[in-house]
């Protein structure tokens, strides 16, 4: 490892091409700089400076030493900042997993506000679907989950609170056969038509809401894709009411009354109590705010 003075010497010689000019730049006597250069060569037992030409240059070995030493010093400086960051209570990084039913766009203002803290915490935001969200927290792939559905499972040191409730509507395309069917629709009548579902990302047992035994399904990657598929008559199913409000109002989707209505889903925010830091505490404080929680759950209406 080079000292800062030795690295500065290499850079000065490389840029000026002269011991005297390098000495002037460093504010040192030429004899001192020359002695330091020879000591550096002796320490590495390698020729670092090409003295055969009018302009002093670094040899390939000298270039390698200068470049690698600069990189190492940068890494050490970055490590020093990270150590101080963690010692100050900030995590090295924070991994947030949202259930796919929430939209990332609604989190953008929160990410910007977090960046303004200049905490140095590396932020990673990914999403899972249904059981995959809780699974990410259980398996250590998430420090915080937002929008998880169903009751919290048994996870060591689990902490959670209710984010809010999501309202659902059974909706079909006006061109779909169920659009003109008598209401309320029975489960038996719905089961004869293909259901559109967002595929569960759980590595274990997967599940889907509103799918009856033997019913044909079209599995899609996102809730947005599910909305578009049902809008285009590719299947039927339950949709977040606020997200499809414009499509319902404009006639692109038709709401159908069901004999067995779906209760609102409770969405949760959850984390592990044995992994608490300042970044996690900050995010929990933000999503506890009712206005933000409501915006996360409502999402952004799909335009007509």
Polypeptide structure, described:
With 304 residues, the protein is of the alpha/beta class. It is built from 11 helices and 12 strands. The chain has helices spanning 4-16, 19-26, 30-44, 60-87, 108-115, 131-138, 187-190, 223-231, 245-250, 278-287, 290-298, and strands at residues 49-50, 57-58, 93-99, 122-128, 144-149, 158-166, 168-172, 195-198, 217-220, 237-240, 254-255, 265-272. Strands 4-3-5-12-6 form a 5-stranded mixed β-sheet. Strands 10-7-11 form a 3-stranded antiparallel β-sheet, covered by helices on one side. The protein starts with a helix and ends in a 6-residue tail after the last helix.
Number of helices: 11
Average pLDDT score: 89
Coarse shape: elongated
Rg calc: 31 Å
Gap between N and C termini, in Å? 62 Å
Question: What topology emerges from the helices and strands here?
Answer:
Layout: H1 4-16, H2 19-26, H3 30-44, E1 49-50, E2 57-58, H4 60-87, E3 93-99, H5 108-115, E4 122-128, H6 131-138, E5 144-149, E6 158-166, E7 168-172, H7 187-190, E8 195-198, E9 217-220, H8 223-231, E10 237-240, H9 245-250, E11 254-255, E12 265-272, H10 278-287, H11 290-298
Parallel strand pairs: 3-4, 3-5, 8-9
Antiparallel strand pairs: 1-2, 5-12, 6-12, 7-10, 7-11
